[in-house]
Design brief:
Strand content of chain A: under 5%
Helix content of chain A: over 70%
Strand content of chain B: 15-25%
Number of helices of chain A: 13
CATH class of the largest domain in chain A: Mainly Alpha
Number of strands of chain A: 0
Radius of gyration of chain A: 25 Å
Shape of chain A: globular
Number of strands of chain B: 26
CATH architecture of the largest domain in chain A: Orthogonal Bundle
CATH superfamily of the largest domain in chain A: MetI-like
Largest sheet of chain A: none
Oligomer: heterodimer
Structural class of chain B: alpha/beta
Chain lengths: 313, 685
């Protein structure tokens, strides 16, 4: 499936993007020959037939794991390899935090349905869910700068993913955390509410189930019965959903990356399209396909872990 | 020993709802001594489950409870959830109604059982495991060691209920509350479970509160009975006293509304008219007065108290009726019945012998197999489920044919085959003489469908909530192309026929009660003037007092319109009352077939005998003295290829046969043999 999707994207990308456009309007204008000469070695010239271009691109991947180069000659492999980790650093932490926070809040509010804590939790989540990431990110940046000024030293970095002049193991980690905290907080704030609402409604469906009552009749307190019996069954759909959102958040953190100046996959996606970088676009599509597959696999694993019935049959 | 184990005083429970505060329980008091069984009976909404949940402390937090519940010397009301959880499952255990949903699906049986043990006492892993296995053995699960690792979905309903009972027994409780423990189960399984609860009681010496709507179960199990109506106890007496010297009109009505499996007489059942009141802002009057045939003005003046109407000889007897002293034994007042018998409609075809009546539905050698598939992508055929294995019957005009059997025996599949007009491979279905094999094309099918209509089991689910009653009843008419004006008059006519007010025809189904909805379903089925009406458990979802009214309606319609019914039920008492002919179905085949009195008076096949003996009879004297055949095990799987008698694995007769006869049971499929009005499929009967 991944192979098919990737190849399809290759042809679609050629239909939409034309590397030649990069040279339109250059001063002094480049001659036809010069453009072809620039593009041909990069396998981006439309003077060669599409099928031939496709084969040299495809065989490059199969035989040398070479995903091609951009119109300016950067290696796609290098770009993806670097940006992938930048994105992962940003997105994985945020996803895990948002999920844990969402589930915890879901359980807390569902156990106190229609009470004050539930209402406050719900209202807060509705507000944060509707905050635009730009507003949230800029707000956090302002707060962080205010904090930095107050303390008199740079505690939080508001741009970039790492400082270039830090050496040593622990300093690098501390530096990374200093950069990481703000975008992570921004992503968690806008992302947790979805999980919260899903978990709350699923748990409420299960909280009045007969088997929770049986568990309480055995002698478990209400809180124990909910945690042990109701939560497990209601976690299954939540885990599935979260696993499937992984590709979306990976590629979709474009605004966060732009605001905080992180060179992640989201920004790369925009850049490749803007620069008619066909090989880069296709590589991102392939990366997305792999992530979807991983997400599906994770979802299945989560279901197997949570639901022993699947293991039996 | 004189101190009661459980003492409930003036218990009141109310909870908020959208329409106002619902007073679900309005002052209940009773005592229960160790080792005794209290039966609480009442219809849905009478407050019996709420009472039990209040004792367990399992009600929602927004519920207001007042009064006093003293258990084993401790006041339960006012204890926190944490304090209560030390008592729940330890001294106080509960068995719930629906075994299918009362076990956590994602934990193994063993885990759930061990949890019940370890939550109250410190036990080593091994000791807990050993005790759990022992418990499973006590409740009669085969292979308990292996079953410990099974999950609930691998078990049948009866087996799950055994597990729930094992959990309840785990800590040797002093009080077991059983909330409709057998309502969701088949009669043969019900008999097993009731015996098991009795065994659990004798082993732990516990007191039992048996909550049920089934008077037969009460007659079988209870020492004392409390009848609840509209959140209050209306009668309270020892079981014999209550059944034989009933003093409250509601209890009399409840007993009179039950069809009896042991009585052949065909007098109509006595329904209790009307519906229970909504428990919101009840006026200070007898809540039953509006349904009571002997109500007088004083009944509406104030709500009667529960007063002692007993005498020294018979012990305590309380009833809440101002006229209870006028009521004498057998439900009579001034020598007349409290509930007068309704008139029996004259049967138009009563004089015509069966042979002379035309056949309306005939089924010849019907079979149905489902392929059994396995695998996620590539389906492999593993075998076949033999849902129906060659059944034949005919129904004549004005006759009711009933198919009875446990769930999974193929009753519903039979109905679906007929309703889907499925062409048979080596048999035929004839409706009014037309073979379904000859039906080609939409028009012919629609014509044939006019003659056969169905009424479903669940009156809530079978009616589209977005359609008005008039639309629902007129839908089959529109389907066959009746004009609008014509169908409107027909709708009014039909509503009148089934005892509904035609002026309510523009309402939606949600405005009607369960019994009324079932009447709507019947009206819809009658719209096209069918010859045959197929009834799939039409009364099993209804309360007894309502059920009697629907059964009477069906009887009346049959007499008036000369309808034929194909009636499917698991409740043999209802079948005995309504049917003319019966077929007993086991694993897709008829094991006994014939006229209703023949089969109920003189059952031949061991399965029929067991089925009949499993039904609790609502009379404690008969119920406690009669011999009972309790079947072991569950219904076998229809996937197994059976070379001989399908019932042999559970058969009580098989066990006492000499080995050469047993070989015949296992090796040879018994055919249905005997005269036309009583045939059975057993080699040795």
């Amino acid at each position: 499936m991944i192979v098919v999707a990737t190849n399809l994207t290759y042809f679609l990308a050629w239909g939409f993007l034309d590397p030649r456009n990069n040279y339109v309007g250059r001063r002094p204008p480049l001659s036809e020959d010069q453009i072809v000469q620039l593009l041909q070695p990069r396998n981006l010239s439309d003077t060669v037939s599409l099928l031939e271009r496709w084969w040299s691109w495809f065989s490059g991947i199969i035989f040398r794991w070479d995903w091609g180069v951009s119109p300016v000659g950067q290696s796609v492999n290098d770009q993806v390899a670097y940006r992938m980790w930048v994105s992962a650093e940003l997105v994985l932490g945020a996803t895990i935090l948002a999920t844990v926070l969402g589930i915890a809040l879901g359980v807390y509010t569902a156990s106190r349905q229609y009470k004050l804590a539930d209402r406050i939790g719900q209202a807060t989540s509705i507000i944060t869910m509707n905050i635009n990431i730009v507003v949230a990110a800029l707000g956090i940046v302002l707060l962080a700068i205010g904090f930095n000024n107050m303390v008199g030293t740079t505690v939080f970095f508001v741009t970039g993913s790492a400082s270039s002049d830090v050496t040593g193991f622990f300093p690098i980690i501390i530096d990374a955390l200093q950069h990481l905290i703000l975008p992570t907080v921004a992503l968690v704030i806008i992302g947790y509410a979805g999980t919260h609402f899903l978990q709350r409604s699923l748990l409420l469906d299960n909280i009045n189930a007969d088997y929770v009552r049986t568990a309480r009749a055995k002698g478990l307190t209400k809180a124990q019965a909910i945690r042990k019996h109701a939560l497990r069954t209601s976690l299954i759909p939540v885990a599935t959903q979260v696993a499937f959102t992984i590709p979306t958040v990976f590629m979709g953190a474009i605004l966060t990356e732009s605001i905080f100046g992180w060179n992640g996959m989201g920004r790369y996606f925009l850049e490749t399209i803007a620069k008619n970088d066909i090989h880069g676009t296709v590589a991102i599509a392939a990366f997305g396909a792999v992530l979807t597959a991983i997400g599906a696999l994770l979802a299945d694993i989560a279901v197997v872990v949570l639901d022993p019935r699947v293991r039996v049959s | 020993m004189t101190n009661p184990l459980l003492s409930v005083r003036d218990l009141k429970v109310s909870f908020p709802s959208e329409t106002g505060t619902v007073d679900a329980v309005r002052g209940i008091s009773f005592d229960l001594k160790a080792g005794r069984t209290l039966g609480i009976v009442g219809e849905s909404g009478s407050g019996k489950s709420v009472t039990s949940l209040a004792i367990m402390g399992l009600l929602d937090e927004n519920v207001r409870i007042s009064g006093s519940i003293t258990f084993d010397g401790q006041e339960l009301l006012g204890k926190s959830d944490k304090q209560l959880s030390a008592i729940r499952g330890n001294g106080l255990a509960m068995i719930f109604q629906d075994p299918l949903s009362s076990l956590t699906p994602v934990f193994s049986i063993g885990d759930q059982l061990i949890e019940a043990l370890t939550v109250h006492r410190k036990l080593s892993k091994r000791a807990a495991w050993a005790r759990a296995v022992e418990l499973l053995e006590t409740v009669g699960l085969p292979n308990p060691e292996r079953r410990m690792k099974s999950f609930p979905h691998e078990f049948s309903g009866g087996m799950r209920q055994r597990v729930v009972i094992a959990i309840a027994m785990a800590n040797k409780p002093k009080l077991i509350i059983a909330d409709e423990p057998t309502t969701a189960l088949d009669v043969t399984i019900q008999a097993q479970i009731l015996d098991l609860i009795a065994k659990a009681q004798s082993e732990t010496g516990a007191a039992v509160i048996m909550i049920t709507h089934d008077m037969g179960v009460v007659a079988k199990t209870a020492d004392d009975v409390l009848v609840m109506y509209a959140g209050k106890a209306v009668e309270k007496a020892p079981v014999h006293e209550l059944f034989h010297r009933t003093r409250m009109p509601y209890s009399i009505g409840l007993l009179g509304a039950i069809p009896r499996v042991d009585k052949a007489e065909k007098q109509p059942l006595v329904p209790v008219k009307g519906n229970p009141p909504l428990l919101i802002n009840l006026p200070d009057a007898c809540p039953f007065a509006s349904r009571c045939p002997i109500a007088i003005d004083a009944c509406h003046a104030r709500e009667p108290d529960l007063v002692d109407v007993g005498n020294e000889k018979m012990g305590e007897h309380h009833a809440a009726c101002i006229r209870s002293h006028e009521i004498t034994d057998g439900g009579l007042i001034d020598g007349r019945r409290v509930f007068p018998l309704p008139d029996v409609a004259e049967r138009a075809l009563a004089g015509v012998p069966r042979e002379d009546r035309p056949v309306t539905l005939e089924v010849r050698n019907m079979t149905k197999t489902f392929p059994l598939m396995k695998g996620a992508f590539l389906k492999r055929k593993l075998g076949e489920v033999h849902a129906i294995r060659g059944i034949s019957f005919d129904i004549r005009e004005g006759e009711t044919m009933a198919i009875v059997g446990e769930s999974g025996c193929g009753k519903t599949t039979t109905l679906l085959q007929i309703m889907d007009l499925v062409e048979q491979v080596d048999g035929d279905i004839l409706i009014g003489g037309t073979s379904v094999a000859d039906v080609r094309g939409g028009h012919a099918e629609r014509t044939l469908r006019r003659d056969i209509q169905i009424v479903f089991q669940d009156p809530m689910g079978a009616l589209d909530p977005r359609m008005t009653v008039a639309d629902i009843i007129a839908e089959p008419l529109r389907a066959i192309g009746t004009k609008k004006a014509e169908s409107e008059t027909r709708v009014d006519e039909l509503m009148d026929l089934v005892g509904l007010d035609p002026s309510h025809s523009n309402r939606f189904p949600s405005a009607f009660s369960g019994g009324q909805r079932q009447r709507i379903g019947i009206a819809r089925a009658l719209a096209t003037n069918p010859k045959v009406v197929v009834l799939d458990e039409p009364v099993s979802a209804l309360d007894v007092s309502i059920q009697a009214g629907v059964i009477n309606l069906l009887d009346e319609l049959k007499a008036k319109l000369g309808l034929s019914y194909l009636f499917v039920a698991h409740d043999l008492s209802v079948v005995r009352h309504i049917a003319d002919r019966v077929a007993v179905m086991y694993l897709g085949a008829f094991v006994e077939q014939g006229s209703v009195d023949e089969i109920f008076e003189d059952p031949q096949h061991p399965y029929t005998q067991a089925l009949l003996s499993a039904i609790p009879i609502p009379d404690p004297d008969i119920e406690r003295t009669r011999e009972r055949i309790v079947l072991t095990g569950d219904l076998a799987s229809a996937t197994d290829h059976i070379g001989g008698c399908s019932f042999a694995s559970r058969c009580q007769l098989f066990k006492v046969l000499p080995p050469e006869d047993q070989a015949r049971c296992l090796g040879e499929v018994p055919p249905l043999t005997g005269p036309e009005n009583h045939r059975n499929a057993c080699h040795f009967r």
